[in-house]
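Format notes (please read before filing issues)

Several people have asked whether sequences and structure tokens are stored in separate files. They are not. Every record keeps both together, in the order shown below: the sequence lines, then the token lines. Line labels are part of the format and must not be stripped during preprocessing.
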Amino acid sequence: MDLLEYCPDKVVSAREAVARIKNGSRVFLGTGCGEPQHLIRMMVENMSIQDVMVYQMLSSTLSHYVDDSSFLRRFFMKLFFISSSMRKAAFDGKIDYLPSYLSQIPRLFASKRIGLDVALVQVSPPDRFGYCSLGVSVDITRAGMESAPLVIAQVNPRMPRTWGDSFVHVDDIDYLVLHEEPLVEALPSVKNQQIAKRIGYYVNQLVEDGSTLQIGFGHLPYSILQYLDNKNDLGVHTQLITDAFLPLLEKKVITNKKKTLLPGRTVASLCMGSEKIYDFVDNNPNFYFRSSEFVNDPTVIARNDNLVSISSALEVDLTGQVCTDSVGYLFYSGIGDQVDFIRGSAMSKGGFSIIALPSTAQDGKVSRIVPHLSEGAGVATTRADVDFVVTEYGIAELRGKSIYQRVMELAQIAHPKFREELIEVAKKRHYIFADQLPPIQDDLLFLEGYKSRLTLKNGKTIEFRPLLPSDEFAYRNFFYSLKEETIYFRFFYKMKLFSHEVAQRQWASVDYRKNMSMIGLVRTGGHQEIMAIGSYADNGTDRAEVAFVVREDFQGMGVASHLLAQLERIAKENGYKGFTASVLRENTAMLRVFKKRYPNARIENTGGNDVVVIMDFADAVEPEDQKDGNGNGREPADGDRS
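Then the structure lines:
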């Protein structure tokens, strides 16, 4: 459509257009990389415009003026989200932060709770039917336009034409300013790639094939995406599309095939990045842009099965409260999309949320896992909303956990040098038992190499990993789920209680080298339960003492054989030459397990009800039907109690 022919009276210069802004007006500006830079500059340069209230999310152009005192006398800025370029101005008190959930901002405009007089936006040139596209900024921009009596649009040929609910007819625009210029580019820098890699490694463990992803604002969620490139058929329903999505889209990791809401479409509200991503979304039917009122609505989000929300935080306290928008009293960013998606993922069938953050800040001087949020820090996400917290030291699972369990989960993923301090503070606040042992101060990343899986003949998959201090309640529940005979075979007497004190004694000896415990976990009803434990302990020689216990409904399925092989591998790494085991004479099933792997094992009588089995690693035999140590296949079916 030729605008000069269709609506010549609407086509004006930027100076003419902004001259229509009256003193005292409330002006909405398009978001982020979609903001109309030329119109904003012309508005600021028009010195006759005075006492204007500006509303925007993710401001860029105005950051060039915030140190100008004359600008601050004429314009008063209210921002829904503080961009990095505006952060210093926020700290200096030069702008006003307006905390709000993104899903609710359009309603604030529509209800006139936030009244608007003018909207300055940027659009693509119209098609032959007169429809322009809001391109990379649909989010709250559409709502801002619809609520403002006066709409001025910068028509920029470089604005991508995006599919979805991004179209606006020229009849609904009051003035059109034809001006071509590059869009704002925004590429977050990754501060520590090694930390991001480790966090990405743990996030990768939580995200399953076919999941639908939401990726929050910030450099860390941005960088995590690259570590999901081994997944299949991921979907996307997110507020923000960035360049980080490009490799996964190009490699067909993201296909959107398994989505239950708008399958085949990447659903988003905003796009920020480089010209490369702008070119990719341009006229691409794979993308479906909608307003924040739709994209961020928790009830809409929940219509995606297996929705995984990945966002970041500034700090998390030991009870699970999350701060995202302030450093103490200083406003840093915004609530943004985190709460909307966390609540939507909680309602999603199979969905959950992940808060990812480095364990420290200020070059390692302060912990981001804290006893309590900093004075003045805002609680963006409540302790009842959080599912998983991930740092470079591991995964803390909080959903359904008590304060005691949360403290232990979070302390063990804090930086090692802060763990003991966190435990001591938690004791003083009576969050945990007074005799609670702190997690060891080692970096336990090496434990990731000890994880394995075993698929049984009945199709169930068991995950094996090292036992952690935060497993105490699950460990106790496991003990009480066992039959009396099973307990007798393991402990040689009819043990009735497995108290906190008993559990503490178990933790006291686990150092993951000289003393090691592995647990087997099976998923039941959306959570994991312990169904087996295997341990070895140093006995002062080059042989460690080994023992197992497997829940009755998993006995005879090769679980003990798998654990024995895994413990052998770990013990060999730590310098041991063999195992010993005390076994009741009547426990013939466990004796078969040992003899099958170590045919030359020696059995010595003790003169009592038990015998001692002496095994050399050099004599170990890998059964033909037992595949690699990652558990790809079924283990031999033998006994499971020692």
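For reference, the curators noted about this record: The domain at 449-619 is CATH 3.40.630.30 (Aminopeptidase). Residues 357 and 517 are 28 Å apart (CA to CA).
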